[in-house]
Design brief:
Blueprint lengths: L4 E6 L6 H12 L2 E3 L2 E3 L6 H8 L7 E2 L3 E3 L5 H8 L17 E4 L23 E7 L4 H14 L3 E8 L4 H11 L3 E5 L7 H12 L3
Parallel strand pairs: 1-6, 1-7, 2-4, 2-6, 3-5, 7-8, 8-9
Helix pairs in contact: 1-2, 1-6, 4-5
Length: 205
C-alpha cells in the first residue's frame, strides 16, 4: 500500500492542529514532523504529540528550525538572527506515512516572500482544521480557496471544539469539501482519548 504525506493546516492559530496531528499520527501509526517550531521549545508541538501517541512505530523527526520566540516564524527568526527559506527546510526521509504540522495558517510568513503554503506539495493530502468563532466561516472558506488556487490536494476538513451546526453546515455546503470528522470540546486529552478518536478517523482515511 502506498504511503502518503498529510499536511495539517488551520484557519488560524490555536484551532487544534496539534491535537488533530496527534490523532492522525496515531490513526495511521505515521511519522510526525513539525518543520518550524516557534517558542515553547521545552514543550514543543512535537513533545505534545509524543505524549499523546501510543503506538511504537511512529518516529518523531526533528524540526528544521527551532525558534526562541512564540511569534510568526519570520519575526521569530529575525530575533534569532537567522533567515528561514523553504529550500532550507528538507522533508525527513521515511518509508512510512508522514504527518506534517504547519504553523498558524497558510499565509503565515516564513520570510518576506514565502509562507507556510510554500512548504506544501501538490501530492500532499491537506487537512484543514476549523474551529467555530466569529469569522470562522470566512477564514475556513478563504483557506480552502487559497489551497485550491495553488493546486493543492484538499483531502478534507476536521472541525474541532464545541459543535456549531449552522457554521459547519455553511462551510460544508459552500466549500464542497469532505468532512473527515469532528473533535468535541473534551475536558482533557490523553493517550486514551486520542486513541478513541484515532479509531474513528481511521475508518474514513
Amino acid at each position: 500500500m502506498k504511503n502518503h504525506t498529510y499536511f495539517i493546516t488551520g484557519i488560524s492559530t490555536d484551532v487544534g492542529k496539534t491535537i488533530v496531528s496527534a490523532i492522525l499520527t496515531e490513526a495511521l501509526q505515521a511519522d510526525y514532523w513539525k518543520p518550524v517550531q516557534a517558542g515553547e521549545l521545552e514543550h514543543s508541538d512535537t513533545h505534545k504529540v509524543q505524549q499523546l501517541v501510543s503506538n511504537t512505530i511512529t518516529k518523531f523527526h526533528a524540526s528544521a528550525f527551532n525558534l526562541q520566540s512564540p511569534m510568526s516564524p519570520h519575526a521569530a527568526a529575525k530575533i534569532d538572527g537567522i533567515c528561514i527559506s523553504a529550500k532550507k527546510i528538507k522533508r525527513p526521509s521515511t518509508t512510512n506515512n508522514l504527518v506534517i504540522e504547519g504553523a498558524g495558517g497558510l499565509l503565515v510568513p516564513l520570510n518576506d516572500t514565502e509562507t507556510i503554503i510554500d512548504l506544501m506539495l501538490p501530492t500532499d493530502k491537506v487537512i484543514v482544521v476549523s474551529r467555530h468563532y466569529l469569522g470562522s466561516i470566512n477564514h475556513t472558506l478563504l483557506t480552502l480557496e487559497a489551497l485550491k488556487l495553488r493546486g493543492m490536494n484538499v483531502f478534507g476538513i476536521i472541525f474541532n471544539g464545541a459543535e456549531h451546526p449552522s457554521t459547519e453546515a455553511a462551510i460544508t455546503k459552500m466549500s464542497g469539501v469532505a468532512v473527515l470528522g469532528r473533535i468535541d470540546q473534551e475536558p482533557y486529552f490523553d493517550k486514551n482519548v486520542v486513541k478513541e478518536y484515532a479509531k474513528n478517523l481511521r475508518e474514513v482515511l
